[in-house]
Amino acid sequence: MGNLRQQLISDDGAWTDQGVARAGAGRVAANDELVESRHVLPITHALEAEVIPRLVLSHRAAINPTSVTLIAANPADVLSLVDIVMRDQSTNAVDFVRSLLARGTTLDEIYLDLLAPTARHLGHLWDEDLCNFTDVTLGLWRLHQVLKELGPTFEQDTPVHAATVRHDQAHRALLLPLPGSQHTFGLLMVADFFRRAGWAVWSEPAATRPDLLRMVRRNWYGLIGFSMACETELDELAGCIRGVRRASRNPNIGVMVGGPIFLEHPEFVALVGADATARDGRQAVLQAQGLLALLANRG
Question: Residues 211, 264: one domain?
Answer without folding.
Answer: yes
